[in-house]
């Protein structure tokens, strides 16, 4: 019996100044980790789904720390430890002007995913395969691997893709490549701000015109909520009004909630309601992973 969701992508060690000060003045850093695909796998596992995460890590202390941590969250961890490459890391730079992150990931182990990694994922016979626009843009090798994986999935697995546009990573020619991957997927998540930057769209309907391939398209509107487009029409789900602590992880939480609802056979609007609820919980905490308890009863009555 296969897993419910298999994810593939890079997870990095995150170094956070402790206490939260400018890194120039920090003498102590707290070690944690972050990665869109592992975030989704962990949240789905906490929700009760069977989830696996696939990647490559360095054969180093950071790599073994990440693999152990993900396994401890109940996720099936399928990683290839590469002795020739390192585990990527990123640093939180906390300043009065705001918090930014700086990446140290060039030629990391996860930037060289291969057919071996795709084979390991397919052997889990997942109902859903999930990745993001970050993974294929780490290298030409990764792009080719994800394209091959998408073709090999065929009709046996639902292909889920989160555009996850990153200005520091994606170059000017990313727009057509991300559009092509999205349009060859079944479920797609995309922020309206991301779509505006990539394709010059101004409304959710414009995004649907650009991304007309997926059966289900979720357009995120930040603090306002999200819309889901289906063959039958569109539904808007407003965001719950909450005190925002940090927005990091909200998109992964929304994707996790929507995919979990989809796996449970909920209607798309009910899956979106679950996703927006988890996103609201994610922005109220420092960190990427929302509390899933108590799980709201949505679309069950």
> Could you state the oligomeric state of the chains shown?
single chain
The ordered string of helix (H) and strand (E) elements is: EEEHEHEEEHEHEHEHHEEEHH
Kindly state the mean pLDDT as a whole number?
93
* Rg from Cα: 18 Å
**Which descriptor suits the 3D outline?**
globular
Task: Give the number of DSSP strands.
Answer: 13
Amount of beta strand: 25-35%
Helix content: 25-40%
Give the end-to-end Cα distance, rounded to a whole number of Å.
Answer: 30 Å
Biggest sheet details: 9 strands, mixed
Which structural class do you get from the secondary structure elements? Answer: alpha/beta
Please characterize this protein's 3D structure:
It is a single chain. The protein has nine helices and 13 strands. It has helices spanning 36-47, 61-72, 115-122, 140-153, 174-183, 192-199, 204-210, 250-263, 268-282; strands spanning 5-8, 12-17, 29-34, 51-58, 76-82, 89-95, 98-104, 128-132, 158-162, 187-191, 216-220, 225-230, 233-238. The longest helix is centred in the C-terminal third of the chain and has 15 residues, at 268-282. The model has no long low-confidence stretch (mean pLDDT 93).
Overview in brief:
The protein is an alpha/beta fold and 301 residues long. The chain has helices at 36-47, 61-72, 115-122, 140-153, 174-183, 192-199, 204-210, 250-263, 268-282, and strands at 5-8, 12-17, 29-34, 51-58, 76-82, 89-95, 98-104, 128-132, 158-162, 187-191, 216-220, 225-230, 233-238.
